[in-house]
Design brief:
Length: 399
Amino acid sequence: MFLTNTHPDHNAPLEPVDADTLGIAAAESVELFLTHRDNHAETPLRSLPAMASELGIGALHVKDEGYRLGLGSFKALGGSYAVIRLVLEEASRQLGGNIDIAELHAPRVKAVAAGMTMACATDGNHGRSVAQGAELVGAKAAIFVHAGVSDERVAAIGRFGAQMIRVEGTYDDSVREAARVATEKGWTIVSDTSWSGYERIPGLVMQGYTAMVREFLRQVSEPPTHVFVQAGVGGIAAAVAGHLSIALAEKRPVFVVVDPARAACIVETARAGHPVKIAHGEPTVMAMLECYEPSLVAWRILSRVADAFIAVDDEDAISVMNRLARPSGNDPAIVAGESGGAGLAGLIRAVADPEIRAALGLNATSRVLVINTEGATDPKRYTELVGIAPEEVGAAIAK
């Protein structure tokens, strides 16, 4: 499945609210918040010249989010940031005045946080981020997980003291249940997907993701000509594409959204020209991207700044995991989880098809960015699929 963006809004300016959410000032605010995190460090940018040569492009960079804030996923930037923002806003409301990040651990702010419960649904990584943020500020967390979330991922969230709630069905079922229970109990819903009447908090989550784009632009001498980013509900793709469109303006790269073929809600939304819910079929190995209904805010942004949409098979994702663990030439090894390498899988599929390659303008001078959105967040599953334990690959990276 490959589609170019034919939406009437393609290349139109972002809506003012989205431009504010994903703009330069907002990204600077996120980075300021990160300076107050004990384990904050910029994630590495990996250059893969051997693979670039194999693919017939000029340069290939991988922003490696497997090192983000001790959670092994880009999601660490979004959920915890939104939690912190929401606590400071509630503290400002209850205490009067503007309470800023410097007072986050003040006793009076902690007292406000203690009365708050942050709730969300998750495939694994977003829930860890929300739970970590809640623990950091002294709030409670209630995390809803669907039947397909592995016990290992549930345990990883539970380590932050969150209440874990199992829900029958899919991720989308858990989103609805989390919203229902949170509304009933007066909890704060910190979702990474949006729906009618619920947009601001998912916008804050997306805003958190802009930090990695800021880092990347500092780490390269020339901006990319092409960017391939995986979707899920669309949040990360929209955040990256939206911020790049603001930061680089007319020099923005060609942006390609990558979906799992078994959960291609963004591709099908692009085909329909409006948000659609797709049928639940066989689960995809790309568990963090297994979503069947797009975020309304994400689609509003992507309809304007995404240039094309492509779907990849499970076999493509597994092949990328193995290829990054056993690199060519002097390329560095990279630990990519089941969903982490989906953007690269999209690039590989695109360059292999002459028509897609031509449609995207991929050639020997192209500078391509992909994002490894997660490391081995389920080490057992990673080892099953790659045949090497993640720590063994990690040891090769350290050499």
